[in-house]
Amino acid sequence: MCLSVPQYHNLPTFFLSPHGAIQHTQNSICVRDATMNILTVATATAAFLIVGQTTAFGPSRTLHPKPCQIRSSSPNRHWVSLLMSTSTPPSMPTHSPATSLPNQIYNWRGYRTRYQVSGPPDADHTLLLVHGLFVNSDHWRKMLTGLNKNTAENPTKTCRVYALDLLGSGWSDKPRKDDPTAQSISGENGRFLRCDSICYRDARSSSNAAKKRPPKLRSDATLKNIPLGTPAGGNRLAPYLELRHPLSSPYNFYTWAEQIADFVHDVVYAEADSPPVTLVANSIGTMSALQSVLDEPDLFNGVLVINPNFRELHMAEVPFSPITMPVVRQIQALLRDNGHGLFKTLATPETVTQILKEPYAVTDAIDEELVSVLLDPLLTPGADEVVFDTLSYSAGPLPEQQLSSPQFPNLPVWVVYGKDDPWTPAPRVEKLREVGRPGEDQSTVERVVGLEGVGHCPHDERPEVVNGLVWEFLERLAS
Asked: Over the stretch 254-265, which tens digit does the pLDDT of each residue have?
């Protein structure tokens, strides 16, 4: 899933939402309303930040949110004080409060990244779970702990299930985007034609491990006339699709895709004899997972997507892009420069609980444990920088573009989604059944399953249903 911020001080939800101002309906999209929302946000944001700098966050008045203590439903979870202005930032616990699994560290390209794993090393299947934006591996709590329970779907089979925190998320490191080391490990390096940046692996090509890896796929940084879907389930051609992060930030889908592939080589393969890995991705994690498949297809045997995200703030998605994108970029710059005080004010359990009620159709799944494990890492140093940096990421690959790539391998892809998801239009998801490689009649997506009464996070809202579908998918891969 992707966390957004609900209306606060009369700001529209778009203010901090990676999903944008476009309002979806089942059969249409109102471009006029979307454009007006963008203009409204520009005015409201500017006014709020100007007033905020001189009053709420000025020297004469400082906002001090009241301390709030929450207890997880897990017996291992201690009481936490979340006094934003004075408390010490939380540190990673030895075990996840959501899963009781040890929090383990994968040192990736000089940075510490957290992961969890469940199930026996010699399991019948190996899965790697890829989370959405602003959340972390704890969001997979019910899949990490639930897949290996004996059910009708898996009376004898077992799974080895990994879930990692992508760089900048959860308990993983959050370097500044302009840090030279962070710049050097970006997945965009060496990715685009007519670009003099050097791929991280190529710079270390003398090692035997690097020599065995496939060369990086290279393309133009700007693609033209790319077929995409619409919220109503139609087709359209995007005149331009910009792949490169506008801020040259390492927090991009190519970096995360390389982290996924490296994790398979360095962690999964170190524990077992090169098992085929099944990717399961939620929301905006879809693009990272699909890109990793494009980069190193031999590592994976299938992809199960849960509620893909179509990134309505992407420049290829925003209506009247030449007119509206300059406004959007001004808003993004205002947030990066002035939004940190607001971020800290909003980073409370009460606010996060309200945020989660937007994408979750099954609100009973929103418990104190969930709020705590999603919020605590967002209070660590650098988290707000990553949030605002990522909200400026109006570029990068999109699902239809990746799935229709000539390089996309011939492996099964299933899509599962909640029909009550306010962020992912059902007709556009269903349209993925028709997406395929150029010149081929067969769709890349083998099956699309819609779930009634479920929102953006089916794996946490209806885990028994989704875990059952995962087992169906694994049996399909074994057949």
From this structure: 999 999 999 999
